[in-house]
Amino acid sequence: MSDICCGPGDEHGHDDEHEAPQRLWRVREIQLAGLAAVFLVAGFLAGWLGSVSGGIALHLAAAAVGGWTFVPGTLKALWRRRIGVGTLMTIALAGALILGQFAEAAMLAFLFSISEALEDHSLARTRRGLRALLALVPDTVTVVRAGIQSAISPENLRVGDRMLVRAGERIPSDGVVRDGRSSVDTSAITGESVPVEVGPGGEVFAGAINGTGVLTVEATATVADNSLAKVVRVVEDAQQRKGARQRLADRIARPLVPAVMVLATAIAGLGALLDEPATWIERALVVLVAAAPCALAISVPVTVISAVGAASRLGLLVKGGAALETLGAVRVVALDKTGTLTRNNPAVTEIIPVDGVTSERVLRVAAALEAHSEHPLAAAILAAAPAPVPADAVTTVPGAGVEGLVNGTPARLGKPGWITAPALDADITRLQENGTTVAVIEHDGVVLGLIGIRDELRPEAPEIVAELRDAGIEVAMLTGDNTRTAAALAAQAGIADVHAELKPTDKAALITRLQASNRGGVAMIGDGVNDAPALATADVGIAMGAMGSDVAIETADVAFMGTDLRHLPQALRHARRARTIMLQNIGLSALIVLTLVPLAAFGILGLATVVFIHEVAEVFVIGNGVRAGRLRALRGAPAPEPVVVQRIPAVPQAGEDGCSCCAEPPIVPARRPNLLDLRPPARRDT
């Protein structure tokens, strides 16, 4: 949990050698709480049978066993001048014992110890979804060095090693296929079910499953620095980021612990002056328990950890609580055309030269200008002319095209509006109305012809647009393409709000206008690179197909590892549900405190009752937050793989503040202690 309960600057030491139990009954604190429960019930039975001294002894034993889970840590924290919820509970426990309320003290120790153990166990379980990503790396890697095959451990893999990946095996790290052809299953990483065909020169990523053939893959990253490891690091960091609601909970809960201590002291002091001191001291102790803010402080973090971890297992990378909350409030989605609504696989469909010019010359000049371009349309031209002689002095004219020197003579390639071609107007209109992008080629001041390039609409696009509209979300399309082509594709997708012929800065300005004219958040979804200004301007920027793209993963608020557009409504539904759960948890936690404090102060509720209500509410909040981790895979995609037991930090031991909800255990890969160093940085007072 956040450092609210523990006070500023609290840091927990963890023993990485302890293993998180897979079963609840193996948690040490649960075992101690169970023993305390046995003593507690036995004490009541002894009292009922007439053995008063036996009942007292058993209740004292219950208080001692239950208190052992949090009192030692609280005392050491006090020595370091840190207070937390464990401090309140320790004072209440000691006060009940001093006043001779042994049964109430035993009840407090039992309930607080079991609720804290359940909380710690629940947080550990929600983090295991992220560890499942690390389990995608095989235990051994087969490499070919100097012509000899050998099996090595993953951490010994070096960049440049040739990895031998047989059918059915997972690819250990990112690389480029040097030999062999196969289909690769990336569903565990991207959440998509359709295998990807790869061959020599094709990129593959860590964690994917080789389908049918044998592949020789040259490693382009070590296991500790591959795309899978980067995703895990980003998600682990994202789980620590705070959204507005978590910051609100922090602002309320942080000063609440010392304020409660002051309030309880005032109640005890003033009451003792006016009435029976013992009665008001008892009420003050009950107020200490009633106002403990642990449920409020844990309400949002457990939801964020659950939601972000579950999303990462299905190829949705959400960058923390702030992004999750904003995504859940989105009411407008702006989609880039190329690569988002379309397949991002453009192809040359027509080459129309002017009279006296050959199609080969048109294509040759175009390929020379685009030889070093990374634009998707350039890839289509280069696919049609795979070995061009690059042009010299090539420069990009934003929103228009490119220009340079081909054989020492000026040449241009760009939009029809930038390069006028009256003789080709009829062909330009025909192609654009069919949704084809047109590039006009000019050499030495003379128009040579045009090239028609078409990128087909994704088959799922119309369904997704309709689904978004049904959910009350407005959809707009943003593109730098011409108006006719954009309108044709938008009509196929069912989008009415079309904005065409936009430069990157124009897209950012349009996002600003959408934000001003709509209530709720505006999301921009693009490729994470060309649309960087718009992604940065939007309330939440979403990058498509981010696997292997450091820029997209680092800069976007949300990144889809795959390219299936169905991830968009899936992510929006998931975020909306998580946001609702956050609000439920905050509301319930605040209501419990506001209700219990006055009832405790006026003596309506006793210590045992308040402890029971308070701890049950905390367990409910935790369970409700864990619900945010439920996320179904896309239709046709396999469910996430079962999560194996991993080595994770133990729950707080003696020497830490007794509030185990303050612990934020780092992510540690199972059986591979040197694979990744994913320990989060020490928390700072915020």
TrEMBL record:
This enzyme's EC code(s): 3.6.3.-
Annotated Pfam families: E1-E2_ATPase, Hydrolase
Transmembrane segments annotated in the record for this chain: 32-50, 56-79, 91-112, 255-274, 286-311, 586-613
Keywords: ATP-binding, Cell membrane, Hydrolase, Membrane, Metal-binding, Nucleotide-binding, Translocase, Transmembrane, Transmembrane helix
Membrane topology qualifier: Multi-pass membrane protein
Molecular function per GO: ATP binding; ATP hydrolysis activity; ATPase-coupled monoatomic cation transmembrane transporter activity; cadmium ion transmembrane transporter activity; metal ion binding
Record InterPro entries: ATPase_P-typ_cyto_dom_N, ATPase_P-typ_P_site, ATPase_P-typ_TM_dom_sf, ATPase_P-typ_transduc_dom_A_sf, ATPase_P-type_domA, Cation_Transport_ATPase_IB, HAD-like_sf, HAD_sf
Homology family: Belongs to the cation transport ATPase (P-type) (TC 3.A.3) family. Type IB subfamily.
Name of the protein this chain belongs to: Putative cation-transporting ATPase G
Native source species: Amycolatopsis japonica
